[in-house]
Amino acid sequence: MSPRVFAHEPIGFNRMPPAVRGLVIANIVVFLLSYVVGGKFFDLFGLVPEHVLQDRWIWQPLTYLFIHGNIMHLLFNLFGLWMFGMPVEGQWGQWDFLKYYFLCGLGGAIAQVALLPHSSMAVIGASGAIFGLLTAYAMLFPDAVVLFWFVIPLKASHFAILYGLMELFAGTSGSTPGIARFAHLGGMVTGYLYIRWWWIAKIQAKGLWARIAGQPQAPRVSRRPTAVRARAQDAEPESSMAEIDRILDKILVSGLDSLTEEERAIMRRYSDRMKH
Q1: The predicted structure's pLDDT at residue 228
Q2: Which domains does the chain have, with CATH numbers?
Q3: Secondary structure letter of residue 48 according to DSSP
Q4: pTM
Q5: What are the φ/ψ torsions at residue 166 (nearest 5 degrees)?
Q6: What's the pLDDT at 234?
Q7: DSSP H helical segments within the chain, as ranges?
C-alpha cells in the first residue's frame, strides 16, 4: 500500500483507511453489546490482572482494547484513533498498522499486569494502543502541529513527550486511581521500542546478510515504518526508486551525516523532481 495522499477536503467515514475504519466499527459494536449484555461483561472481557495471572484468562490483554465505560470514553479514544491512526496507516499500510496497534495494546496490558499484579479492578479502553499511535505519529511527523487541550499548539514530538511525562507523574503519584496510567505508558514505550529498535535491527540484519552473501547493496525492506516519504509519479523508474529507498534506509540507520556527496546529490535531484 502506497502512502495515503491527503487532500484539503472533508474526510468522511468511507475515506478512512480500512484498518482504522474496521477498528472504529468494532469498538462501537462492542460498546453497544456491553450495554445489552450487562452483568459480568466488563469483568470477563476487561483486563483484570488477578484473573490474567491466577485464572489464566489470556484473552483479556487483547479484548480489553474494545471495551469502554461510557460514551465519552469511547468518543475520546475514537477521536485519537482517527487523528493519529489515519496518517500512520497511510504510511505503513493496513497490516503493519494493525500489527503495531495490537502490539502497543498488548504492551500496555503487560505493563498494567506487571506493576499491579494483584489488582481486581477491570482495565478497559483502547488508550494503550492509542498512546502507541501517538508515539508513532510523533516519530513519523515530529514537526506536525497538535493542539494541546485543543488550544495550545505544540509540535507532535513535544506533545508526545509532554503527555508521557504527565502519565508518568499521574501513575507514580497515584493521583488518578481510576485511570490505568501504566497501560498508557506501556503502550507508548512499546511503540517507541518497536519503531526505534526493531525496524532498525531488521535493516541492519538485512544489510549484514547482503555483505556476507556478496550482494552489491542491502535489499529493500518491504513496507517498513519510515519518516514521511513522498512517492514519485508512476513514470519514476524502479531502479531510481530502489536507490532512493536505499539512501532513506541509510539515513534512518546512520543519520544524514552519513551520506556521501553523491547520495546527497541524488536526494536533491529527487526533491527537485517532486517539487515540479
Answers
A1: 40
A2: 13-196 (1.20.1540.10), 200-275 (no CATH)
A3: -
A4: 0.71
A5: -65, -45
A6: 44
A7: 18-37, 41-45, 49-54, 60-63, 71-92, 94-115, 127-140, 156-173, 181-193, 199-213, 238-254, 261-275
At 163 the three-state DSSP class reads helix
Contact 132, 101 (CB under 8 A): yes
Q: Collapsing DSSP states into helix, strand and coil, what is residue 204? A: helix
Contacts of residue 190, Cβ cutoff 8 Å, sequence gap at least 6: 103, 104, 106, 107, 108, 132
Answer yes or no: are the C-beta atoms of 105 and 129 closer than 8 Å. yes
* Choice between 198 and 71, residue whose per-residue pLDDT is larger: 71
Q: What is the pLDDT of residues 129-173, one digit of tens each?
A: 999 999 999 998 998 888 877 788 889 999 999 988 988 888 787
Q: Across all residues in the chain, what is the average pLDDT?
A: 80
CB 247 within 8 A of CB 263: yes
- Does the pLDDT at position 2 exceed 90? no
How far is residue 200's CA from residue 9's CA, in Å, rounded to a whole number? 35
Supply 35's cell numbers: 450495554
Residue with C-alpha cell 482517527?
A: 82
Distance CA 33, CA 272 (A): 53
| Exposure on the CB side of residue 131, measured as CA atoms within 13 A | 29
